[in-house]
DNA sequence: TAATCGAATAATGGGGCCGA
DNA sequence: TCGGCCCCATTATTCGATTA
């Protein structure tokens, strides 16, 4: 049966995964429609989230105009006998043209709401945004408000975790042992030569002993299984002998937390309900593992994943999460690492890890519940700042965790506010009253080829700074701080550029730069205060961007495309030319070429 | 052949409701 | 007030399938 469907030309968009009636049916609907015909169908939510429906989404985006994606949860037993957490979609589309944006509503409980959809409920999601958020799967995130879209775009300033980078660490996940396929290896009692088998339920945030193990594995047998039949065991260090990042693969969006992860001790094996990081190519060192764990444990990342995941924390979801991949060369790195390490390293098995991040030993781990709560609030706030979120946005994120205690959320928010006023201490470790100060090791040499952020040289006179460098500083400041009066703004930008005093010359230059920023649509003037107009490049009108692109290009000289894109990004104040900017700029170039406002020769372009 | 994803099904324990 | 029962949240297990 499945062979028939897989080979049928009329079912050419079924993609990977199981043959599934609703998938077949959806494609059939598209095929049967005449041009201009419309279709409405009730199907499982997998249509917008699963990897196996990627091709179908592509088909719907390209061959139809989607007129509605209304998703409801079966909480109120709209379909009897179906699990309450199962989600369905009422999908409507017209076979005409293609979809640029579509109205969507998620996690509704009452079908009556359909009456007001999409006029009064729901929001518009652009296909372009879907492509940027989920380049690998085209899965649609479950946005419930414009704030969600905004936050997603802000977070997208950082590279997706699955993107392999030369200049920083990378994450690759694996399932070590399969609970079914490898069950012959599992013993039900500990013994000499046996190591515990960790499962998902055994961990919680910063806690790798949340429950006791059920199974043990003979180390020799396990090594043999890991190395496979061909692999030689000459005593080499395998991943289980390192500290690893591990996360639960069984989860749910209505659970207290959706992303549950921790650093796993050495000398344990992991079942497939606990996916772990791969280290055999030095992808991640110990400090970076701790850093990754801190970021992944945060409400920010969890919130992002909750909008994608159903019940399985699949790897492709994790790989499509934007994560700031800081290294020890960044001043914000160690404050996060040391705090997270104090939460993780509370037992002797983490002594080595504690030392690797600069603590004296596991004795410096935080065991007092109040202190642990404080450290967690600090970490969550730090990560929220790292992502460049506003207080409103962070508040919104916290509000999407109804099962988390109010006081925990309040502490995180309060800490967020405090950190907004007081920059983070470089050496964080105040271990409470009477506690000893920890020593932080000098950051190790990082294997970065390019420094993550070019530090402005404070010695450079302001007149000699590149104008675009000032634009980037302006965007940076407003991204971090929100609306500012003109005078405050000048001071803040000056500080960002490394000037401690704002003399008359600096004031003059920066005042002019702020006006330029308004002209370029970076800032807006609202009631006397300046504020960031648009956080990321896709918030702009396309026509406006085309003008800006041409302006950034300057005269009629030939410019390499790459260089032109970079110049455009700086012109708009974006210090990093991320994927979003890159894609937008390429599309602008194509548009301008079509309109004859730009000409191309090989890889170079110039104004006409 | 290992890695990975997807779907169906199930066990368990707590909380709350309800009738005796 | 108490016991039974159902719902919900949580945490899986198992099987089927494709793809690199």
UniProtKB/TrEMBL annotation:
It is an enzyme of class 2 (transferase). Residues 10-79 form the Type II methyltransferase M.TaqI-like domain. Residues 424-463 are annotated as: Disordered. It catalyses: a 2'-deoxyadenosine in DNA + S-adenosyl-L-methionine = an N(6)-methyl-2'-deoxyadenosine in DNA + S-adenosyl-L-homocysteine + H(+). GO terms for molecular function: site-specific DNA-methyltransferase (adenine-specific) activity. Gene3D superfamilies: Vaccinia Virus protein VP39. InterPro entries: MethylTrfase_TaqI-like_dom (IPR011639), N4_N6_ade-DNA_methylase (IPR050953), SAM-dependent_MTases_sf (IPR029063). Its EC number is 2.1.1.72. GO terms for biological process: DNA modification; methylation. It comes from the Bacteria. It holds the Pfam family Eco57I. Keywords: Methyltransferase, S-adenosyl-L-methionine, Transferase. This is site-specific DNA-methyltransferase (adenine-specific). It comes from Meiothermus granaticius NBRC 107808. The lineage of its organism: Bacteria, Thermotogati, Deinococcota, Deinococci, Thermales.
């Amino acid at each position: 049966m499945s062979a028939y469907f897989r080979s049928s030309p009329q079912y050419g968009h079924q993609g990977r995964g199981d043959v599934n009636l609703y998938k077949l049916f959806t494609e059939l609907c598209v095929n049967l429609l005449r041009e201009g015909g419309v279709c409405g169908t009730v199907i499982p939510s997998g249509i917008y989230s699963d990897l196996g429906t990627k091709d179908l989404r592509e088909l719907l985006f390209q061959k139809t105009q989607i007129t509605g994606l209304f998703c409801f949860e079966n909480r109120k037993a709209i379909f009897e006998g179906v699990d309450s957490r199962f989600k369905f979609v009422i999908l409507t589309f017209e076979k005409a043209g293609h979809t640029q944006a579509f109205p969507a509503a998620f996690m509704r409980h009452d079908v009556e709401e359909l009456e007001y959809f999409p006029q009064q409920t729901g929001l518009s999601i652009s296909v372009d945004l879907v492509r940027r958020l989920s380049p690998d799967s085209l899965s649609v995130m479950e946005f419930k408000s414009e704030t969600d879209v905004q936050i997603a775009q802000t977070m997208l300033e950082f590279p997706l975790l699955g993107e392999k980078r030369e200049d920083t660490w990378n994450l690759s996940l694996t399932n070590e042992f399969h609970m079914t396929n490898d069950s012959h290896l599992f013993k039900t009692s500990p013994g000499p030569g046996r190591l515990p088998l960790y499962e998902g339920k055994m961990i919680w945030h910063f806690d790798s002993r949340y429950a006791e193990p059920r199974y043990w594995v003979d180390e020799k047998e396990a090594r043999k299984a890991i190395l496979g039949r061909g692999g030689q065991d000459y005593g080499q260090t395998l991943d289980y002998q390192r500290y690893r990042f591990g996360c639960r693969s069984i989860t749910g969006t209505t659970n207290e937390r959706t992303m549950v992860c921790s650093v796993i001790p050495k000398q344990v094996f992991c079942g497939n309900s606990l996916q772990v990081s791969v280290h055999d190519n030095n992808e991640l060192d110990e400090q970076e593992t701790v850093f990754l764990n801190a970021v992944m444990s945060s409400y920010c990342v969890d919130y992002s994943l909750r909008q994608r995941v159903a019940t399985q924390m699949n790897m492709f979801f994790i790989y499509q999460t934007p994560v700031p991949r800081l290294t020890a060369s960044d001043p914000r790195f160690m404050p996060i690492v040391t705090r997270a390490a104090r939460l993780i390293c509370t037992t002797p098995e983490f002594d080595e890890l504690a030392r690797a991040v600069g603590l004296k030993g596991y004795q410096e781990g935080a065991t007092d519940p109040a202190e642990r709560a404080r450290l967690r609030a600090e970490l969550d706030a730090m990560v929220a700042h790292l992502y460049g979120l506003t207080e409103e946005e962070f508040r919104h994120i916290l509000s999407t965790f109804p099962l988390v205690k109010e006081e925990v959320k309040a502490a995180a928010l309060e800490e967020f506010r405090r950190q907004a006023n007081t920059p983070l201490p470089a050496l964080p470790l105040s271990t409470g009253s009477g506690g000893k100060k920890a020593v932080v090791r000098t950051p190790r040499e990082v294997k970065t080829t390019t420094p993550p952020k070019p530090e402005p040289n404070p010695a450079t006179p302001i007149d000699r700074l590149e104008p675009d460098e000032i634009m980037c500083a302006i965007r940076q400041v407003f991204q971090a701080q929100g609306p500012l009066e003109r005078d405050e703004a000048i001071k803040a930008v000056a500080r960002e550029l490394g000037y401690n005093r704002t003399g008359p010359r600096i004031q003059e230059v920066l005042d002019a730069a702020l006006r330029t920023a308004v002209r370029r649509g970076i800032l807006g003037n609202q009631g006397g205060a300046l504020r960031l107009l648009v956080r990321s490049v896709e918030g702009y009108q396309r026509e406006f961007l085309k003008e800006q692109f041409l302006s950034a290009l300057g005269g009629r000289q030939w410019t390499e495309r790459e260089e032109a894109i970079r110049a455009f990004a700086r012109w708009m104040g974006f210090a990093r030319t991320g994927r979003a900017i890159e894609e937008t700029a390429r599309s602008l170039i194509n548009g301008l070429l079509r309109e004859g406002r730009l000409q191309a020769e090989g890889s170079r372009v110039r104004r006409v």
